[in-house]
Every structure is written in structure tokens, then in C-alpha cells.
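Model it.
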Amino acid sequence: MSLSPKEGLDLLCNGDVLALGKQADEVRRSLHPDNTVTFIVDRNINYSNVCVSECKFCAFYRRKGEKGQYLLSNDVILKKIDETISAGGTQVMIQGGLHPDLDFQYYLDMLNLIKKKYRITIHSFSPAEVIHMAKKANLSILDTLKELKKAGLDSLPGGGAEILVDEVRQRVSPKKISAGEWLEVMEIAHGVGLESTATMVIGMGETLEQRIEHMEKVRQLQKRTGGFRAFITWTFQPGNTELGGKKVTAWDYLKTLAVTRIYLDNIKHIQGSWVTQGQNIGQLTLAFGADDLGSIMLEENVVRAAGTSYQMSIDKMVNIIRDAGKVAAQRDTQYNIIRKFE
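Modeled.
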């Protein structure tokens, strides 16, 4: 029986963090009884940091003409993919700012070029980027996604969800797409065969009720489409941002993570975040409902721009998982196991 929003809120407000961890771990065990924890080897390629959205929580973006702005050439992008494949990577996540001067053909040409040269999964472009492309091309979201898929896009990351409540979004990113638009892009993407992940960013002044509202919207969409492969909770990194503030505590993060595992009973995978939390808390997520630790990330720029930087390798990842009493396995984008580290 699924939790009601009221029951979910009660857990977030009043639940004991260790008891919640135990309950979430039981849910994880029922879904993944073989005790395997997965990770992927991939690279984030941020093709440009020029963005018209100018979100207050983002330390990565630059305005057009501002010092430090960049746009990667195709040669640089291809070199990064070469390096990714050489390191055993199976996926690239290509994302960037909403660049005012790039037309839709730029993205189609990039996808075609990559697929012509490499056998690699392209898990790329957030809903905000898709809507930006659609407006540039004067196309519907449906036709935009169909064209992207035809050119080589395999799946969508869940970026840009932040908190799917417009009251929060208007405060922290007034120029960005609405909660409804994010959900619409994902629903249409699932309809054309582009599965995705979903994310939530906590610590931007949202209420606990708004966190549950976010989870409920994702759960309802999953009921309709079944297209979300995983759910990932990140914590806002306030360094170098206009929004500023303090980081949420590790306990707040772990408690929220546990509730996502209990609440989102129709999403198979919950990912723990070593990227924002570091490897020690990342390891603890495996006792709070997470069955996946995401990527070793050969490159990451957005969180790093906010002053948070942790390093990971395959050996380190395997040891983190083993030391938690789990079996480590490298996966692909679709959560197929590539190899186990017994």
C-alpha cells in the first residue's frame, strides 16, 4: 500500500532517522534481494556555460560575453568521449546552459556526429534544454523529442527538477521552466520511448510539505508512464551562488533519502549521492535505501563550480560498496549489469 502524502509528511517531520533508514533498507531489500549495489562509468560533458536562465542557485552559468564563458568545439567533445571510452565508460551526459545563439541543428549535428563515430549511450539534455530547443526551432515538444531521438539521443537525465513546486521555482529560478513544463517534457519523452531519471534538490528553503509534493508529482507521473528508471536526491551547494545559505545536514539528507525510497514505491532504483556528500555519507546511503551510487564521474563541473569537489575511481567505488557489506557491480544506463566485482 502506497503512503499518502500526509503519511509521507509525517515520516519526514516526525520519523526517527535510524528507524527510517531501517524501513527504507527493507524496501530496498525487497526490490533488490541479491544485495548488489551498482554504479556506472560515464562523463558529464558541459558543452557551454552560457545560460539565459540565470538561476540563483547556480554557480556554473555565465552570461553571454561575460568573462569565463565558453562553448566547446565538436573536436573537444569527441576527444572527451574518446577518453571516456578508453576509461571503460559506457555513457555520456551532455548538458549545458540555455545558450541564446545555438539553434536546434547544432544539437542534432552533435548527436549525429557522436553516433557516427562511437557506440556509446547518450543520456543527455534536461527538460529545460529540450524546451529551449523547441522554442528555437518553433517545434512542439513532441516533435523536438522525436528529432532528438532520431539523431541519437537515448534517454534523458532528470536535471532541472530542483523542487517541482512553482512557489519555490519562482523564488530561486524565476526564468526557468515551470514544474508543469518539466513534468510535461518527461511525460512526452516517456511516450516516445525515451526513458529518464528524476531528481530532487533539497536545501533551497523549501518546506518539508514541498518535498513531499515533489515526490508525489513524480510518483503520479510514474504511474502513468513507468518511464523513470531512478530517483536521485541532491543537496543544494550554496558556495559561489547568488542564493547562498547553508548546506543541509547529512542527517536531513539521509532522512529525506530514506523517505524517497519508502514513498516512491513504483521507482525501482534510488541513487545515493557521493558527489555532493562525499564518500563516507555516500556509503551510508546504502543503509538508507539506496541501491546505486551513480557514476564515478570522469568529469563534473556544475557541483564543482559551487566549491564542492570529491574524487572517485572504480577501485574506490568498489571498496566503498564492499565495505558496506554489498556486492559491487558496474551497470549500463538501463541498469543492466556489465560486470560484478565478487
